[in-house]
Amino acid sequence: MMITMTDSSVSRVAVVTGGSAGIGAAAAEALAHDGWHVVVAARRLDKLTAVAERIGGTAVELDVTDQASVDSFAAGLDRVDLLVNNAGGARGLEPLAEADLEKWQWMYDTNVLGTVRVTRALLPRLRESGEGLIINIGSKAALDPYLGGSGYNAAKFGLKALTRVTRLEEIDAAAGVRVTEIDPGRVATDFSLMRFDGDEARARAVYEGKENLVAEDIAEAIRWVASLPPRVNIDSMNIMPRDQG
């Protein structure tokens, strides 16, 4: 796979991590409808391929926790105009006193360091674009700590700080890239299925009886931010369902 600057069939190139399902897949579809060539990236290549075929994009296997995987992915891209750092997730609900450090490590490695690895690898291409944009998908968990969320809260607070610092650094850069954070509230996806180790009943209970967002709601926000002229930088967006405080 190689997406090049000189490929006449490609206008603008968007990379969406965690693109095999949920918000990532919905964002890829929304961007494709706006004329982007979308490179969807995640570990589940079978699901990625289905997304890419549906939108006319490119599917590339990527593990954001593995530097070699990120390096290989970046080497295949000669052009990137938009990076949507969507790969992430939560594991466990243990309080701090019972913290499972393996789960904490995974959450930090995926949500924070995964974003660092991919952003650092693709930043030269984004700067070369002249209109580069990074959209980091955060969470309401970065704004409001909650019981059972200590590890995920910490990771998403870390991502929020990283996003802000990246924007400040890029303001001073010669070919600065715009940086946006989108913090969704409760979105009905398979997010909770991972948190509950595949327990479908517990995952469903998170959303039952509530007015939930759907992945397409967040995808529309991503599409809108990416559609704005280069002079505009949306700093952050908090998107909640109507019944969530």
From TrEMBL:
It comes from the Bacteria. The keyword Transferase does not apply. Gene3D superfamilies: NAD(P)-binding Rossmann-like Domain. SUPFAM superfamilies: NAD(P)-binding Rossmann-fold domains. GO terms for molecular function: oxidoreductase activity, acting on the CH-OH group of donors, NAD or NADP as acceptor. Keywords: Oxidoreductase. Belongs to the short-chain dehydrogenases/reductases (SDR) family. This is SDR family oxidoreductase. It comes from Corynebacterium doosanense CAU 212 = DSM 45436. The lineage of its organism: Bacteria, Bacillati, Actinomycetota, Actinomycetes, Mycobacteriales.
